[in-house]
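Hi,

Apologies if this is the wrong queue. I'm a grad student, and the batch job for Quinoprotein dehydrogenase-associated SoxYZ-like carrier from Paracoccus aerius produced an output file that my downstream script rejects. I'm not sure whether the problem is my script or the file. Here is the sequence I used:
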Amino acid sequence: MKEYILAALLLATPVAAQDNPLQNSPTWEDLRASVLGIEAEVPLDEAVLDLDAPIRAHEAAIVPIRLTQPADAPPVQAVTMVIDENPAPVAAEYSFGPAMMPLDFEFRVRVDSYSDVRAIADTGNGNRVMAGRFVKASGGCSAPAGKDMAEVESTMGQMRWKSDSQDGRTVGTLMIRHPNFSGLQRDQVTLLNIPAHFIDRLEVRQGDELLFTMQAGISVSEDPVFRFAYAPNGQPIHVRAEDTEGNRWDQTFEAVNG
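Support response: The file is valid. Your script probably expects a header line. Output copied below for reference.
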């Protein structure tokens, strides 16, 4: 419980807007075409999407990221998160339902070396915009796991949920217990490499209505936490998580009114 509270507090505090804009990145020029299949540069447009992240991360393995939109911004259908210098640069791909608009979405990632962190948003009809920050962090993908293997086995897949009302919307915080091993970490007892094992699929709904989905790689943090605002419809929250070992966890949280 203590770890959950600390994680929730970390995300509940908005990341202050920082003077750490994206930097020129030869890596991005290559990734844009070869990995994402995007030929032209994607424009930056804070009137559609902004990304907040710290200039220098306190912990490279749990770097907080917040995506926000102005109230009058066009809806974002999907976002691809890219961390240029990570071993697997595409950190996650998110899709969003209408109840999540305008977007206010927080999560945590691993940053392996000083890198641009980008969100490439799809607003429909082939339109894309980009937001991002340059983050000073190193070693996030190989940072030691926070728990021993016995605790990992006993808590994996446990979920916690809390929600609060704010300006007519609900702000939900979801935490999922999972080591999200990157494949680059060592067991602190045996000193052997720990095989990659992470949540690669996540779906969150209220009733039948989609809130968001995630398809992820190795860059999502251990014990991932998601904090997001949405328009409530009074229905329970359903969460389904799947990992790379074929495990699946489903949990339902009753709606809280008022």
